[in-house]
Amino acid sequence: MPADQDLIGIAAVTAAHFCPLRLYLDRQEEHEEPPRYAVCKQVSYHLGAPFDPAAVWEEVLAVLPYAAEEERALFAQCMDACKGKEWIAFSDSDVPVSSGRLGIRGTVDKADPALPGFAITRSSEAPNAGVHAVDRLRIACYTACVRETLGIDVPGGWVEYIPSGVLRFCTPGPRDRRAMLRAIAAAKEVEAGKIPKKPLNPPCTRCPQQERCAPGPRRLSELL
Fold first, then answer.
1. pLDDT of residue 217
2. Which of residues 130 and 33 earns the better pLDDT score?
3. Structural domain boundaries enclosing 35
4. CATH code of residue 150
5. What pLDDT was estimated at residue 216?
6. How many structural domains compose the chain?
7. Cα separations (Å) of 18 from 31, 121, 132, 138, 185?
8. Which of 85, 121, 202, 222 is deepest in the core (most CB within 10 A)?
């Protein structure tokens, strides 16, 4: 079985799913946890039990000492969206999981063997129905890891869309698992040092590396 340091992070797998070239460029920079996710993550810790919003905000400030009005507004939105809703109280949070069979690893936001089940926390708004395609990919990855690491036989997992106050269950299908395998293979090639090509119709308008790739097709040596 591969050592943990030889496994590909699920975050890298999702980046490769969008565009392997984005992952390649991302690896050349250091990234901190986005403030938006940090706010939603702290709110998520308290779902399923009574809590004091003022105390939760103090926790947010401890995690984000320079939180500004934007983070405060997001926190208020999350509080309004999540209050009065039915939430699952999981027994454990931030659980490291991995799959030696697939060669991937990650940290699942919540898990509970007694349910049995697990959940991932998202800082994005919920779609009108179901879950976002990239979250189906995440759930496919984490389902395999949870089964292998924790021995929890689950068909899928929950997705917490904190800003919308929405909790939805996702059962990955064959299409999702095929996308997962393609993304894992692409991520492994990037981690091995291979320079990837930009795929057809990549989501450039939403990519933080857009300026390094635009405009249009160019030699990769010009980008680096």
1. 43
2. 130
3. 4-211
4. 3.90.320.10
5. 44
6. 1
7. 17, 19, 13, 12, 13
8. 121
